[in-house]
Amino acid sequence: MNKSTQILHSIPTDPLTGSISVPVYQTATYVQQSPGVHKGYDYARSNNPTRKVLEDLIATLEEGDAGFAFATGLAAIDAVLKLLSAGDEIIAVDDIYGGAYRLFTHVYSRFGIKVHYCDTTHAENILQYINPNTRFIWLESPTNPTLKISDIKKICALAHAHNIQVVVDNTFASPLLQQPLNLGADIVLHSATKYLAGHSDLVAGLVVCKTPVDSEKIRFIQNASGGILGPQDCWLTIRGIETAQLRVERQCENALKVARFLEHHPAVRSVYYPGLVSHKNHSIAALQQQGKFGGVVSFDLKKNTTEAATRVVTSTQYFKLAESLGGVKSLCCLPAEMTHKSVPAEKRHGSGISDSLIRLSCGIEDAGDLIADLQQALDGILHAEVLHLKSQQQQTQTVLS
After folding, report:
1. Which residues are catalytically annotated?
2. What is the residue-level pLDDT of the chain in tens, covering all 401 positions?
3. What's this model's pTM, rounded to 2 decimal places?
4. Which of 6, 88, 219, 268 has its CA 20 to 30 A from that of 31?
5. 3-state SS string over the chain?
């Protein structure tokens, strides 16, 4: 079955009225026939019919046992971390999302959770960090923002040989391009704010577990901690998912065209996009992501300064300067000053996030317009350099004369 067909027909019509749109059950509680006897719902923190549709839908798309909706992507990460106990350890991808790094470092480290950061683009690198306390391998593939690719299947095999679970943040690929559970992962999570909701109008997080055992644990944590997604935002996320296949296909097409343009611009030093043959793990991405490579492109400038990068991101017209990604409108950001500012500079640089790294989230606009926008912004850098050089030459001539 085509993914678009699967999405649309995994969303049920309302059994009460036949409504083709999922109703928004805006309620805090439910009337019971007698104590403990009800229609499957007792209190909105524990369960909600609108939320259940979303949770069932993401479980279907990721081909897992059960799904869970949270108030934000970080709330979803937090719920998974609550599976751990003091003394447990995580091996995490080195250029991890800045919010996850902040949560690991400034919150869970105080509770005795230790994290080792590792370049997982070579699966064998994780072996040096494995010890009896290791509970999770924590992956992003592609990573944020340098678009590194990890061989999920190979890492899962290594992890499971040591009785370690693998958690994959699948936000950048989405289940439309990649299903980590089918590659061996145990838990997958999303910032549904991004490609799934797709319109930059809500924040949400999703978790999908492979086994009923993990599902019951996350279900308990979701209810006990209470960081649930409200019914209105559940409905908006469902509506976004209905068009996700069309959106993501266009975003992937635009991103590949933008990446190819950037590869040949004289102001650009390096381009990071797994769809390029020059990408280190292009062949792995092609297999894992079903031949499509996502809508995010990152690149460095030859003039590796924050000032030069700032000039570019404040000169674009269609690429709006903002955090987040995955929406229908194109966005750009400077990770070192925005999404990853909480990560120490030495760690950022060590994982490949330079001061001039610019992250683009390609929307569904015309690719030619997006390229023209980048062309004028990058040409402005070259023009400024020419003017600076001429000024220096004039100053030198004046001194000599």
Report:
1. 45, 97, 169, 194
2. 787 898 988 999 988 899 999 999 999 999 999 998 998 999 999 999 999 999 999 999 999 999 999 999 999 999 999 999 999 999 999 989 989 999 999 999 999 999 999 999 999 999 999 999 999 999 999 999 999 999 999 999 999 999 999 999 999 999 999 999 999 999 999 999 999 999 999 999 999 999 999 999 999 999 999 999 999 999 999 999 999 999 999 999 999 999 999 999 999 999 999 999 999 999 999 999 989 999 999 999 999 899 999 999 999 999 999 999 999 999 999 998 887 887 888 888 888 899 999 999 999 999 999 999 999 999 998 876 655 555 565 666 666 66
3. 0.93
4. 219
5. CCHHHHHHHCCCCCCCCCCCCCCCCCCCECCCCECCECCCCCECCCCCHHHHHHHHHHHHHHCCCEEEEECCHHHHHHHHHCCCCCCCEEEEECCCCHHHHHHHHHCHHHHCCEEEEECCCCHHHHHHHCCCCEEEEEEECCCCCCCCCCCHHHHHHHHHCCCCEEEEECCCCCCCCCCHHHHCCCEEEEECCCCCCCCCCCCCEEEEECCHHHHHHHHHHHHHHCCECCHHHHHHHHHHHHCHHHHHHHHHHHHHHHHHHHHCCCCEEEEECCCCCCCCCHHHHHHHCCCCCCCEEEEEECCCCHHHHHHHHCCCCCCEECCCCCCCCCEEECCCCCCCCCCCHHHHHHCCCCCCCEEEECCCCCHHHHHHHHHHHHHHHHHHHHHHHHHHHHHHHHHHC
